[in-house]
TrEMBL record:
It comes from Oopsacas minuta. NHL repeats lie at residues 29-69, 116-160. Keywords: Repeat. One of its GO terms (molecular function) is nucleic acid binding. Pfam families: Integrase_H2C2, NHL. It comes from the Eukaryota. GO terms for biological process: DNA integration. Transmembrane segments: none annotated. Residues 355-450 form the Integrase catalytic domain. The keyword Repeat applies. This is PEP-CTERM domain protein.
Length: 450
């Protein structure tokens, strides 16, 4: 039976300020027979040089390689011979070689998938393994760290595959990663990430929210360039992100239970899943900072309306809040605002305003909305004009809420007194709350229409 796989990549801000707006975008399903089909993928890694994506295909007993657009390139490990894999679990790419944990030993390939050597055997001693799982390389000295899961330890080998040391008394360690400061170990049966210093002394534990008791589906995690921790939270269908201070900074909901996560050379989060109906999805999410450019690309040539603009965008992109984003973009589009054909208005008779008896007794009030906000956050101007003296008061407003308008009017009234008549255009901002204050202050609430 075909098991379904999903690759989802989600774009995040450069500098790893993971935005809350990331949502799946473009999906392309790949179903049926073929090399690009996966069956229970357990691990994903990106080659920093080529950007190629290497996925450990557990049930197909091989590693499949995709380019950065998730297009299949080649696979290795499933043909008979010395390099044949049996239930591969995890891989690490370092300096033109790929190390893969499988069965009860480690396989060593080059980046083209050519078999080089086999390290270790089944057992409990040095250079012996019992279900080796996660694997990592210390980039400063090329030491190799292996989760020797069923032996409840991390085993460390030198770059020429000699035993160096071991540490830990874990329940079932399934993933290991390294930074300059820490060795991170994910213990599946006791779901938390343990942080050790490089002398193997426990420093901290990050408790994950997951339950993580499925040994066949161990979660994995990834340390990005800024030392943020991305954790595939299998039990809550999300990717949890912790900052270098180990505070939870983000939770990206994903479509199903994620099994592994990594970040590619373009700061896209790649997540792999297992699924029952057999498909591969490739999702690309724009950065928040890119959204205006994307809307502009689909709107600025012919200035179509809301729905047409969104239809164009959705050929390639989608995100939560697309209607709001495109709507507010069009509302502030200068061309649309200045060229929009207004519906014809019937001619009305002009109603002259009788000359006021004295200054400041009959005033007009209106709000002017600016297209953009000032650096201090102001976007509206409240304008009051005395109809006798033509004296004008203008005050900046950040919003046009009743409260802010009333606060502003209060300051004006305290300085200039209360007019007898305040004329306005029945805008929603002059709500009943404001006209009620007019009533209390005995201001005639004189309305006119445009
Ligand atoms: Zn426009």
């Amino acid at each position: 039976m075909a098991t379904a796989i999903t690759i989802e990549t989600e774009r995040v801000k450069t500098g790893n300020d993971y935005t809350s707006k990331i949502q799946p975008l473009v999906c392309s399903s790949k179903r049926g027979e073929g090399n690009d089909k996966l069956y229970s993928p357990l691990c994903v890694a990106v080659d920093k040089l080529t950007g190629n994506i290497y996925i450990v295909d557990y049930s197909n007993n091989c590693v499949k390689v995709f380019d950065s657009t998730a297009k299949y390139i080649f696979k290795f490990g499933d043909s008979n011979g010395e390099g044949k894999m049996f239930s591969p679990r995890s891989l690490v790419i370092c300096r033109s070689r790929i190390l893969i944990t499988h069965d009860h030993d480690i396989l060593n390939y080059n980046l083209d998938g050519e078999f080089i050597s086999r390290i270790g055997k089944h057992g409990k001693g040095e250079l012996e393994f019992d279900i080796p799982w996660g694997i990592a390389i210390n980039e400063s000295n090329d030491d190799i760290y292996i989760c020797d899961s069923n032996n409840n330890r991390i085993q460390i080998l030198s770059q020429d595959f000699q035993f160096e040391s071991q540490f830990g008394s874990f329940k079932y360690p399934c993933d290991v990663k390294l930074s300059k400061e820490y060795i991170y170990v994910l213990d599946t049966s006791n779901p938390c990430i343990h942080l050790f210093n490089h002398n193997h002394i426990l420093q901290k534990r990050i408790i994950s929210r997951g339950q993580g008791n499925q040994v066949i589906d161990p979660q994995s995690f990834f340390i990005d360039n800024s030392n943020n921790i991305l954790y595939a939270d299998y039990s809550s269908n999300s990717i949890s992100i912790f900052n270098p201070e180990f505070q939870s900074i983000h939770n990206i909901p994903v479509s199903e239970q994620p099994t592994a996560v990594t970040v590619d050379n373009h700061d896209r989060v790649i997540v792999i899943f297992r699924k029952k109906n057999g498909c591969v999805k490739y999702l690309e999410i724009p950065l928040v900072s890119e959204i205006d450019n994307i809307i502009g690309f689909y709107h600025n040539v012919t200035h179509p309306g809301l729905n047409t603009t969104i239809d164009g965008i959705r050929n390639k992109y989608d995100w939560n809040g697309i209607y709001n984003d495109v709507g507010s973009y069009i509302r502030t589009c200068h061309d649309c605002q200045t060229s929009a054909a207004l519906p014809p208005q019937p001619q009305r008779e002009l109603q002259p305003i009788p000359p006021p008896e004295e200054p400041w007794c009959h005033c007009g009030i209106d709000l002017v909305r600016n297209k953009s906000r000032t650096v201090l956050g102001f976007q509206h101007i409240l304008v009051i004009v005395c109809y006798l003296s033509k004296f004008v008061i203008a005050r900046p407003l950040k919003t046009k809420t009743s409260k802010e308008i009333l606060d502003c009017l209060q300051v004006i009234y305290l300085s200039f007194g209360v007019p007898k008549i305040l004329q306005h255009d029945q805008g929603t901002e002059f709500s009943s709350k404001i006209t009620h204050i007019f009533y209390i202050l005995e201001i005639s609430n004189c309305k006119y229409t445009k």
